[in-house]
Amino acid sequence: MIASPDNSLHLSPEDYFAWEEQQLEKYELMNGRPYAMGGGSINHSRIAVSLTTLIDTHLDSSQCFTGNSDLRINIVGTDNYTYPDLSVTCDARDQTNGQYITYPCLIVEVLSASTEAYDRGGKFRLYRQNPMLIDYLLVSSTAIEIDLYHKTNAGDWLIVNYKAGDSVELKSVNLSFPIEQVYLRLNLSGDRKSG
Questions:
Q1: Tell me: the pLDDT tens digits for 104-154?
Q2: Distances (CA, A) of 131 to 53, 55, 106
Q3: Contact by Cβ (8 Å): 109, 153
Q4: Helix (H) or strand (E) holding 181
Q5: Could you give the 3-state DSSP secondary structure of residue 5?
Q6: pTM for the full model?
Q7: Residues of 86-114 as b/e, b for ≥16 C-beta within 10 angstroms?
């Protein structure tokens, strides 16, 4: 995310929802300040679509629903809102709000050079405030690599690193799939700085 050009802008959540509807781009809200969301690469987009299709199809007959990068997440206990690349909620409390969800069990971020440090650090610290979050998936857009942060029954976070040939296991949605399924028909030989 990139800082809003108007650093004097400070918004309540209600003002943020109304203000953002008038904007040409999406903005996350952190501590009352809007931050513009940058665009992604072709690989970033295709990976997000592949994962969204895979997970949404798997959950087709369940009570859970999948959101793409247009679905806001409210960080539990705060007035902060983010736009992950993909999220899944199975929580009935998320069925009644048309603006955002608060209790996803799965959040996916497709990594880019400009957001990777934040996605692994500050953003993950925010997301961990959600007691319902089980899996946080970080997907490389430049190599066949996926990192899964999985919360155990004891509440500890384990990191599982997946590479070519591995099967990714998402316990939050009871789904396993070959990692290559996410990277079908992608050009991974491009510049590693894009994403």
A1: 999 999 998 888 999 999 999 999 999 999 999 999 999 999 999 999 999
A2: 26, 21, 12
A3: no
A4: none
A5: coil
A6: 0.91
A7: bbbbbbeebeeeeebbbbbbbbbbbbbee
